[in-house]
Amino acid sequence: MATRPAPIQMTACSQPQRARTHAPRAHPHPLAAAEQPAPTPPPAPSPAPTSAPAAKPARTALTVPAANPARGKPANPWLWNVVLLDDQEHTDVYVIAMMQSLFAMSADRATHIADLVDGHGRAIVMTTHKELAELKRDQILAFGKDPQVGSCSGSMSAVIEPAGEDQQP
Question: Are 103 and 95 in contact (CB under 8 A)?
Fold first, then answer.
């Protein structure tokens, strides 16, 4: 009676291979021994302790930078506010469209930001880490002029500032 071939197995690289029907080699390849590092000797036994074991060092708590009393803000802030500044050249429709486009805000939230900018002269539109805050500020500065205002000279102004305890008015 004829023997059946071993079943085909798929490997990670999707190449069909025959299953092994024999045991692996008992002796490694002669060059494989030269490539392996020499075994390390076991560590020497440590001397027996003569006194009580040493106390573990006390754990230290994570320290937060101290607040600067003159400014009321952290000395080394890791959060930054993107602040949109008001001008008289841009319409509320422009501000709402920009907030929806750059910050994916809902119409209600974008309208609220437009009202804050108009009423207070500035509005915090995002609080994030410094790199993203700089990117969002640059996107506001590059958004372009308001097409509904013929005398508009360019984009709105925006700045970034360290996020402090005093947020939006």
Answer: no
CB within 8 A of 80, min separation 6: which ones? 127, 128, 129, 130, 133, 134, 160, 161, 162, 163
Closest residue by Cα to residue 156 from 79, 96, 81: 96
Say if 2 falls within a structural domain. Answer: no
**C-alpha dist (Å) from residue 15 to 9, 19, 150:** 8, 12, 66
Cα(53)–Cα(143) distance, rounded to whole angstroms?
Answer: 66
For residue 146, is it within any domain?
A: yes
The pLDDT score that the predictor gives to residue 150 is: 86
Other CB atoms within a 10 A radius of the CB of residue 36 amount to 8
pLDDT < 70 regions, the chain: 1-39, 41-42, 44-77, 165-169
* Domain count along the chain: 1
Query: What are the residues facing 157 on neighbouring strands?
Result: 85
- Residue-wise pLDDT for 65-95, tens only, equals 445 555 555 554 589 999 999 988 899 999 9
- pTM exceeds 0.70 for this model: no
Q: Which residues contact 16 (CB under 8 A, 6 or more apart)?
A: 8, 9, 10
